[in-house]
Design goal:
- It is a single chain.
- Strands 1-2 form a two-stranded antiparallel ribbon.
- With about 40 residues, the protein is mainly β.
- It is about 0% helix and about 30% strand.
- The protein has one domain.
- The protein has strands at about 5-10, 15-20.
- It has no helices and two strands.
- The protein is elongated.
Length: about 40
C-alpha cells in the first residue's frame, strides 16, 4: 500500500546525499510496519 511520507535530502559531500523519510503512523492501531525503498538516479 503506498504511503504518504516526507523526505529530507541533506548533502554530505560532492558525491553523497543523506535521505531521511519521515513516515508517521499510529502505534496504537499499527503494531509493526516496514517499507521498501526504491532509489533511482535522475
Amino acid at each position: 500500500m503506498p504511503v504518504t511520507a516526507t523526505e529530507t535530502v541533506t548533502d554530505i559531500d560532492a558525491e553523497w546525499e543523506r535521505v531521511a523519510i519521515d513516515c508517521p503512523y499510529d502505534s496504537t492501531t499499527i503494531a509493526a510496519s516496514f517499507l521498501t525503498v526504491r532509489v533511482e538516479m535522475p
